[in-house]
Design goal:
Belongs to the class I-like SAM-binding methyltransferase superfamily. RsmB/NOP family. It holds the Pfam family NSUN5_N. One of its GO terms (cellular component) is nucleolus. InterPro entries: MeTrfase_RsmB-F_NOP2_cat, MeTrfase_RsmB-F_NOP2_dom, NSUN5_7_fdxn-like, NSUN5_RCM1_N, RCMT, SAM-dependent_MTases_sf. It is a single chain. The chain is globular. The strands form 3 sheets. Strands 6, 7, 8, 9, 10, 11, 12 and 13 form an 8-stranded mixed beta sheet that branches. Helix 2 runs antiparallel to helix 3 and helix 22 packs across helix 23. About 40% of the residues lie in helices and about 10% in strands. It is of the alpha/beta class and about 600 residues long. The termini are far apart. Among the domains are: about 120 residues, no CATH class; about 80 residues, 2-Layer Sandwich (Alpha-Beta Plaits), CATH 3.30.70.1170. Strand 12 and strand 13 form a beta hairpin. It binds S-adenosylmethionine (SAM).
Length: about 600
């Protein structure tokens, strides 16, 4: 199995060492007596495969190919499927001889793989493979105004310390971000100190290789993190003794940022703690690695393969006094640039360990014959999907995602001692952003507990781009009971409390909102209750059913019952006082 471009590419992916991928490929090529694949082709294969990794993973998992084709491993399969399915749609472009066992292992399942690709592509709203590739490319082109952002990890070093280390001590400080793209006298050795986020530097993208091969990077003192992705922890701003939850933590950029903020740059974090939940076992390992590398393990407790929705602040003493929550759930990723996607996947690439025989009923039934039969073929033809069907697929996906995001947010709002919560996505769609925020604010639990939006945003006062007023207004109009009037200053406040990034100021597409409570009633009224005393059903699940603002419930892809937030219904019944109908936590007698 050795000696072809796929095994070579797989070695680069699996044996990740410091240094940029490009430099590693080129130096290996120069050092080799007998170079095989051209370094440019090898680099392109890896980067393009990583760009489409999520989609290809889905195809691999749903087709069950790994459970019958024992010659394939996950990494090789990713690379082969890229060339087979995406390089030139409709033509097989695997660069191996027709009889090569790896090629045969893929071609045996041609029909099934093509059908799974179509399904995954449509789920993402792309009518054709070309459309998928064009979107990835235009995203990449849109990255020309994004510098290489580097967060100085103050758990390990200081800004001053970095700037006095070679070669940064020879770099020139520029006073505008624009100068990073247009450096003086053709010198690439410039840096810009960000005006919004402390300890964040911007460099020209061309110095990435130097950065990633620097000893400070290997030591976890430099963290490549986009500016917008620093907003949630910066806005949440937990003090040193806070009890914080990072609800959706992997790979861990925001977790380690929180840890640095809580240490106040002096390595002390008082009695504070961060509990980091991550549902996905594979991503939990990445989180663990990142937290250790950043020196945040003293303050972060990782809940590996744990669902935040199953956490119970009333029975778990570690969670009961949570004051701050950072919620950065899975989203459409529509704001992520292709470059970020490919590079972040590359530095964190871990091959999937798929459960043996996953999703392949046929494979379970049969003993593996010497020459495995093709998986159950589905649709031989790749259907041509009209644009309106693609739009419908996207709309369905956004409905599912926003229902899931709202469920997580309502769970966060239910923490009895919580007083500050950030909700963020790397999406540009209002369905995942303003709509979720409005639905959460108008929910019974938010009203009962006195949750508001932090429209002052003192941590980011000077940021100009805020939420979309019309989207806040329309969503609120649809959700309000008909005895409730829409207060326009409330609409304005909510929009002001939403931070949007849309590609300006060196950021990709991003959204953050911060929920606050002025008075923490829980401190005087609420107490822990024993598991057996709890209501038989999740408390706010019941509220969904009673609250007719988001009264429809669907079986969603995540497998749980999620509220639809995009289609509020008008009630015909006489309005009831929603405040009175809200169930509340048991109070101290
Ligand atoms: C957008 S990513 C988080 C990125 C992370 N905050 C960072 O900055 O590095 C969302 C993560 O949430 C995880 N996740 C989704 N639902 C979850 C749940 N119910 N409980 C815990 N983790 C969840 C996903 O597996 C994924 O790793």
């Amino acid at each position: 199995m050795s000696g072809n471009i796929y095994t070579e590419a797989s070695n680069f992916l699996l044996n990740h060492k410091t240094g940029s991928l490009k430099s590693r490929i080129y130096s290996a090529h120069n050092a080799s007596q007998n170079p095989r694949a051209s370094p440019a082709r090898l680099y392109a294969l890896i980067m393009e495969t990583l760009k489409h990794q999520d989609l290809l993973n889905e195809v691999i998992e749903n087709s069950g190919i790994l459970s019958v084709e024992k010659k394939l491993n996950h990494t090789i399969a990713l690379l082969l499927l890229h060339d087979h399915l995406l390089l030139k749609p409709g033509k097989d472009c695997i660069s191996l001889s027709a009889s090569h066992p790896l090629k045969s292992a893929v071609l045996r399942h041609k029909a099934r793989l093509s059908a799974e690709l179509t399904r995954s592509r449509l789920r993402r709203g792309f009518p054709t493979v070309e459309a998928l590739k064009v979107a990835a490319k235009s995203c990449e082109e849109g990255t020309t105004n994004i510098p290489r952002w580097v967060r100085i990890n103050t758990l390990k070093t200081t800004l001053k310390g970095v700037l006095s280390t070679t070669p940064f001590d020879s770099f020139t400080k520029v006073v505008s971000l624009q100068s990073i793209f247009d450096p003086p006298e053709n010198s690439q050795n410039v840096y810009y100190v960000d005006a919004n986020i402390p300890n964040l530097l911007a460099f020209p993208v061309s110095v990435t290789q130097m950065l990633t091969s620097h000893k400070l990077y290997a030591a976890g003192a430099l963290i490549l993190q986009d500016k917008a992705s620093c907003f949630p922890a910066h806005i949440l701003n937990p003090p040193p003794g806070a009890h914080v939850i990072d609800a959706c933590a992997a790979p861990g950029n925001k977790t380690t940022h929180l840890a640095a903020i809580m240490s106040g740059g002096c390595g002390m974090h008082g009695k504070g703690r961060i509990t980091a939940f991550e549902r996905d076992p594979r991503r939990s390992e990445i989180l663990l690695k990142m937290v250790n590398q950043a020196g945040a393990n003293g303050i972060v407790e990782i809940r590996k393969a744990s669902d935040f929705l199953k956490s119970n602040p009333q029975t778990d003493p570690h969670l009961g006094y949570t004051t701050h929550l950072l919620l950065d759930p899975s989203c459409s990723g529509s704001g992520i640039t292709a470059r970020e996607q490919a590079e972040s996947i590359l530095t964190k690439f871990t091959p999937l360990t798929l459960p043996a025989q996953s999703h392949s009923v046929q494979a379970k039934k049969r003993k593996r014959p010497t020459s495995p039969p093709p998986l159950e073929p589905e649709n031989e033809e790749t259907p041509t999907i009209p644009n309106d069907e693609a739009a419908a697929a996207l709309s369905t996906r956004l409905t599912t995602l926003s229902g899931f995001q709202l469920t997580l947010l309502l769970h966060a709002l239910s923490f009895p001692h919580a007083k500050r919560i950030t909700y963020s996505t790397c999406s540009i769609y209002c369905q995942e952003n303003e709509h979720v925020v409005v639905a959460a604010l108008l929910s019974p639990i938010a009203r009962e507990r006195g949750w508001k939006i932090d429209s002052e945003l003192s941590m980011l006062k000077e940021w100009k781009r805020r939420g979309i007023v019309e989207e806040v207004e329309n969503m609120a109009k649809g959700l309000l009971k008909h005895n409730e009037e829409l207060d326009h200053s409330w609409v304005k406040d909510v929009a002001m409390g939403c931070v949007r990034c849309d590609g300006g100021d060196g950021t990709g597409g991003f959204f953050v909102a911060c929920f606050v409570r002025e008075t923490d009633r829980s401190e005087v009224g609420y107490t822990f209750i024993q598991e057996e005393e709890r209501e038989p059903q999740g408390e706010h699940e019941e509220m969904f059913e009673e609250w007719e603002g988001i009264n429809d419930v669907v079986e969603a892809r995540e497998g749980s019952k999620l509220p639809i937030i995009s289609a509020p219904k008008k009630r015909n019944k006489a309005p009831r006082n929603s405040h009175k109908r809200v169930k509340i936590l048991r109070r101290k007698k």
